[in-house]
Amino acid sequence: MNRENKRKTFEKGYYKTHRCNDTFSCRVCDRLVFPTPTGGDHRNHCPNCLSSLHVDQEPGDRAADCGGIMDPIGVWVRKKEEWAVIHRCRRCGKLSSNRVAGDDNPMKLMSIALKPLSLPPFPLERIEQLTDAMGGSGSLGIGGRTP
């Protein structure tokens, strides 16, 4: 049973109170996705490519009519040091946050986390100039300058 039919079959709010044990194929990487073994009762993204579908307006309600692909665009750390993936819908632009599951691809998670550092909004040489202006060691080399 696909997600659209399931949304019609179960009453509103069903997934907020019931574990989701469904298997589905990822629309981005075509891998078969199984229920999460750890990290929650609901599998809401592919553990391989971390993509999701825009099916919820509120977590678990399956009330969104958009159905667009949600791309992973960032990660953040919640309270108690729990990681979450930030998704943005390709169709409508809605942002959402989904808890990281125990079987999520660690290399994909780290590449998303490090992307802002690899693509800063300014030239890296500017850091050296600003640090020099503040009286610190502005060298980008290993070890910096010695006094």
TrEMBL record:
| A Pfam family recorded for this sequence | RNHCP
RNHCP domain mapped to chain residues:
22-110
What is the protein name stated in its UniProt record? Answer: RNHCP domain-containing protein
Q: Which organism is it from?
A: Evtepia gabavorous
